[in-house]
């Protein structure tokens, strides 16, 4: 391959560019990113950056010298509009076209929006939200009790705002962590004076406030929606690249089109999208190796890992929760807001979760897939 285009300049795109050079690709490398900023870290946007304890320079994923060493053509503030896999051309929003032998799709996701509510996905979103939170806002309503919504609510409470969280599901994070641990996460909101409305949706955001499906109206100076994201695949229409809730790939990030791989939030590896920081970083080296090899020479089979910081509590999770039949606490208790627990299916460890218990979490995650469970030494 002489030219490789990486479409997407966030974590997955940067790690792909780094992996290409590390694995010996010395041809032309073009990185296209729809934001005007150099690659930056997204997780702090809803926490430290929103709180004002870190600045935008601290978010950089790489320093200028390291970026320069990649010898890449950075096309920032430019969007990929169309991919023609027949001519191997990527058509960009500035009217230019680039031709590439290989393409890494790393376009991530776009937030689902609610009219009248702010969303938080990008650095510019975070700058606008921080200005709103610190500009005289007293009452905040957060739509969605997922990780982004919960972290925004936590940060807003630290800033002294009155906060209400609205969640359409009966239990916050129930789909991700299961009902038992999800309920504990819901209690974190209540512990810190946040009003939590579960099992009710939003009809509209109006001048009067947030109108709920049960008829209640929540007064609000500011409304933030954290209701998930959808994979950014619109630009692939007509390309021949198979999509369906993400770019369809095998376990090595290889798509149905030769010379095209996908990584990060946009990629659906073997039927699953892993929308987490570690997955985006880890997938890059595997997909790039397969791109350069022209076949699936390596697969990524590590279980998904994520963390979330809410109200001074670090929540860590690894593995899967669907079809588990028992949650077993190994250390601590939910009441103490410090514990480590495992998800079991037929006495096999399929997941590990912890609150403020990194030591036991690290030990327990080594037992994924193991049976019987052995209890870590204190």
TrEMBL record:
GO terms for molecular function: oxidoreductase activity, acting on NAD(P)H. Residues 305-370 form the Reductase C-terminal domain. GO terms for cellular component: cytoplasm. It comes from the Bacteria. It comes from Umezawaea endophytica. Its cofactor is FAD. Keywords: FAD, Flavoprotein, Oxidoreductase. Transmembrane segments: none annotated. InterPro entries: FAD-oxidoreductase/Apoptosis (IPR050446), FAD/NAD-bd_sf (IPR036188), FAD/NAD-binding_dom (IPR023753), FAD/NAD-linked_Rdtase_dimer_sf (IPR016156), Reductase_C (IPR028202). This is FAD-dependent oxidoreductase.
């Amino acid at each position: 391959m002489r030219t490789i285009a990486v479409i997407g300049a966030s974590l997955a795109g940067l790690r792909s560019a780094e992996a290409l050079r590390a694995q010996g690709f010395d041809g032309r490398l073009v990185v296209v990113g729809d934001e005007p900023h150099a690659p930056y870290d997204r997780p702090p946007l809803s926490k430290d950056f929103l709180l004002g304890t870190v600045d935008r320079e601290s978010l950089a994923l790489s320093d200028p010298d390291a970026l320069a060493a990649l010898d890449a053509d950075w096309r920032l503030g430019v969007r990929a509009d169309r991919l023609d896999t027949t001519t191997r051309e990527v058509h960009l929003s500035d009217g230019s076209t680039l031709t590439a032998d290989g393409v890494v799709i790393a376009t991530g996701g776009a937030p689902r929006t609610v009219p009248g509510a702010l969303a938080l996905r990008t650095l510019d979103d975070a700058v606008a939200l921080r200005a709103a939170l610190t500009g005289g806002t007293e009452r905040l309503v957060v739509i969605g009790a997922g990780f982004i919504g919960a972290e925004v609510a936590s940060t807003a409470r630290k800033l002294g705002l009155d906060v209400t969280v609205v969640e359409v599901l009966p239990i916050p994070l129930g789909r991700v962590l299961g009902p038992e641990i999800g309920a504990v996460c819901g209690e974190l909101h209540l512990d810190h004076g946040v009003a939590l409305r579960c099992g009710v949706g939003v009809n509209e955001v109006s001048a009067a406030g947030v109108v709920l499906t049960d008829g209640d109206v929540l007064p609000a100076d500011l409304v933030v929606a954290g209701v998930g994201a959808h994979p950014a695949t619109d630009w692939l229409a007509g390309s021949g690249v198979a999509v369906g809730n993400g770019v369809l790939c095998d376990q090595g990030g290889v798509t149905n089109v030769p010379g095209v791989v996908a990584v990060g939030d946009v990629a659906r590896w073997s039927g699953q999208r892993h929308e987490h920081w570690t997955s985006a970083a880890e997938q890059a080296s595997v997909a790039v190796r397969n791109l350069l090899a022209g076949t699936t020479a390596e697969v990524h089979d590590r279980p998904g890992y994520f963390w979330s910081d809410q109200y001074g509590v670090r929540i860590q999770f690894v593995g899967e929760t669907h079809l588990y039949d028992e949650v077993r606490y190994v250390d601590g208790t939910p009441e103490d807001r410090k514990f480590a627990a495992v998800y079991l299916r037929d006495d096999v460890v399929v997941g590990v979760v912890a609150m403020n218990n990194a030591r036991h979490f690290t030990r327990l995650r080594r037992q994924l897939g193991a049976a019987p469970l052995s209890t870590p030494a204190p």
